[in-house]
Amino acid sequence: MRANLQLPRLQLHDGAIQTLPLELAFHGVSKPLLMSDKGVVKCGIVDQVLRFAPNDTVVFDNVTESPIFADCDAAMDAYVKGDCDCIVAVGGGSVIDAAKLTAVIAGHGGRAADFAGHSERVTRSVVPLIVIPTTAGTGSECSPGAGVHPDGKSREAPIGGPFIIPKSAICDPALTVSLPAGLTAATGVDALTHCVEGYLAVPASAFIDVLALDGVRRLCANIEAVVKDGSDKAARLEMMTGAFASGVSIQKGLGPAHAIANTCGDQGVHHGKLSAIGLLASLKFLESREPEKLAAIHQAMNLKAGVTVENGLRDLMQRLHLPTTLRAAGYNAGSIEQLAQACVTSHFNRTAPYKPNESDYVEMISAIVE
After folding, report:
1. Taking Cα atoms as reference points, which of 309, 94, 95 lies closest to residue 197?
2. pTM for this structure?
3. What pLDDT, in 10s, does the model give residues 163-207?
4. Nearest to 121 by CA among 138, 139, 136, 101
5. Distance CA 297, CA 95 (A)
6. Which residue from 175, 160, 162, 68 is spatially nearest to 347, judged by alpha carbons?
7. Please, what are the domains in the chain?
């Protein structure tokens, strides 16, 4: 199946937050539930957004770092109590994913467990969702998927489809300036992983493939600059542009790196770190199987001749002080065979350029454990 591209309305520029009233009016809504988390509130970003939101906006700021069903159910309770008619998500991928599921519940009734893992139940009844990302990372502001965990010790339950793509994305680089260097790095390589895996995904899509490689170029050219100097708004804008491209890339599909990352998403390790570590494993696996595509990625990353994409990514992660193994990331792998069995069942394998079997996953995971 070829990617059926669907995009939100996009405001991508310095000062874009000022367009929030316009986007609310465009969608015919006026009483938002603003979803965020304590960290974004502490940084003062929610207050910045509220300057341009209706006075009676309801704020729910209890989304956890790895969102769980209870977060969405509690947000839904606030939505009903506040008589809201839309959702505004202010935060990173966790907040946006939780907001997507909450928008589904708000439009259909029920609870989180009724829809997470059951994409077939989602209809066009989803309430309008406007997203304001505070990281340049997941691309969730324009992707057709989300992942929320049943609880703090379970792997995420995915939900996806065209109806959960946000109605509008307001991408303002000024809102990412306060993001700490470590999170800037982790979310940035997450976006890079999406672009690379999206480009590698099959079947080919001329438009998405161009955007994916452009995202790789922008992210690799600017990530070190924003980690070093978070106030560099020009580089921040490039990162947000690359992150949006990464969300578009997801619409084409992903692959084994995300099968590994999501399988290892049950111990609270940051998803961006896991994605990049998974990509290290899969790049070596795909090097001899997709040489032409790897050559295009090599060029987009601006790597020197003789440096493989795998080693180029590892070097970049090390310069960004990011872990390159599961152990270094704080993940206890346990049985590699059991992890491999779970990876084989991942839906991400459907669009992988080469579908690994259990033995292949054992080999890949073994390479990134220590």
Report:
1. 309
2. 0.92
3. 999 999 999 999 999 889 999 999 999 999 999 999 999 999 999
4. 101
5. 30
6. 160
7. 9-176 (3.40.50.1970), 181-369 (1.20.1090.10)
